[in-house]
Specification:
The protein has 310 residues and is of the alpha+beta class.
Length: 310
């Protein structure tokens, strides 16, 4: 009996087929890597922008509430607001802030007496508080190690009773903020960790909108924006009027004008940007390089706040 055997020849991949398969696989992997890289970059940017917006909101909302309740009085020699450009506090970084305003003024703060208004024990009476803002380059938790430094905005609130006892009669709030409160709080400074508001605020700019009267113009009433920055270093409100080194349009009539609004502008730098500005991390060849780096790693926020009638 003959048994018939069926044999089949097994055929493998040819070299050409393997090369085509490898090429297709390489293309697919390249596309996936590109998509993943784009997705990660988008996610990181979105995360940075979200964090920056939260920091800006913390700062601008706090400052806006204080400005909306700002208190001034005419017919006296007291100083009611002092805003001065001082960049020296941010020199710990490799990229010093270009505009860091020291700000102090009087306001009917809603968080006075730790928010316990009307409490028979906490509330010592009065409603006019003194508030100060200062930008500093430091470790937010108080460490002296510069490797954890960032741009920190602090807010120091003086309750109404000590404000009335020691500050309402002050005629020169423009001296360094630490000196303003020496008589009341000899061991407290504005930049204490407990006064922390937010971090990564690279700079903040104040623009005071001053309503002036100029009989040589028609209409005689106009609004003059006075922005603290390169050319204008000080803006002060006294009981006798406004004092400033502003020298722009209508400068002669600004001292007799009144504030109608304040525009708060903040530049919030990303965590990556802050890390790169720490000592020893990065050097910049010139100001253009700094400006380019800042444009790529920061976000801008602005809010216009209406001021109570002076």
């Amino acid at each position: 009996m003959n048994t018939q055997r069926t044999s089949s020849t097994k055929r493998g991949f040819t070299l050409m087929e393997l090369m085509v398969a490898m090429a297709i696989t390489t293309i697919i992997v390249t596309v996936l890597v590109s998509i993943t890289s784009i997705a990660l970059d988008t996610w990181n940017r979105s995360r940075s922008e979200l964090r920056a917006s939260r920091q800006a909101k913390s700062m601008i909302d706090a400052m806006a509430r204080d400005f909306e309740a700002m208190v001034t009085r005419r017919g006296n020699t007291n100083e009611w607001l002092s805003a001065m450009t001082d960049n020296s506090e941010t020199k710990g970084s490799s990229m010093e802030s270009t505009n860091a305003s020291n700000l102090i003024f009087f306001t009917a703060a809603t968080d006075r007496y730790n928010g316990k208004i009307g409490d028979p024990i906490e509330d010592k009476g009065g409603d006019v508080s003194c508030v100060a803002y200062q930008l500093d380059y430091k470790d937010p938790i108080g460490s002296s190690d510069s490797k954890f430094g960032t741009y920190v905005l602090s807010r120091f609130l003086v309750d109404p009773k000590p404000t009335f006892d020691g500050l309402l009669g002050v005629a020169n709030l423009a001296k360094p903020l630490s000196g303003v409160f020496d008589g009341l709080y000899p061991k407290i400074t504005v930049t204490d960790s407990k006064n922390f508001v937010c971090e990564n605020i690279y700079q903040f700019t104040l623009t005071f909108h001053v309503q002036v009267t100029d009989s040589t113009k028609n209409p005689p009433f106009s609004s003059v924006p006075v922005t603290l920055g390169d050319s204008t270093k000080t803006f002060r409100i006294l009981g006798t009027g406004i004092t400033t080194d502003y020298s722009g349009a209508s400068a002669a009539v600004v001292p007799s004008g009144r504030i109608t609004a304040v525009e708060i502008s903040a530049t919030v730098i990303s965590d990556f940007g802050v890390d790169q500005t720490r000592p020893g991390r990065r050097t910049f060849a010139n100001d253009d390089a700094k400006a380019k780096f800042l444009a790529q790693n920061s976000y801008q926020y602005t809010k216009l706040v209406q001021i109570p009638s002076m």
